[in-house]
Amino acid sequence: MRYFELTNEEKAILEDFENDKFLSDPDFKKNKKLYEKIARNTLNKAKNINLRLSERVIAKLKARAAEEGVPYQTLASSILHKYVNS
Known about the structure:
Layout: H1 8-18, H2 28-43, H3 55-68, H4 72-84
């Protein structure tokens, strides 16, 4: 039972695979590093942490999150993400 339809490109890839018609990638080493990086980033899983914050800070964070229309934990995560990547 098939739950999806293959695109024309996917059908061509499948046909090539079934007929052993693959070509070597001239930039294999470069592309391998790129795809390894993509795989690592894809497989990165979020970790839970516990923070002790004052009630005042949490209240302000919740108010700001409400203004932005996002959950306060998402806003806190975004703030930390921006800080460590700047």
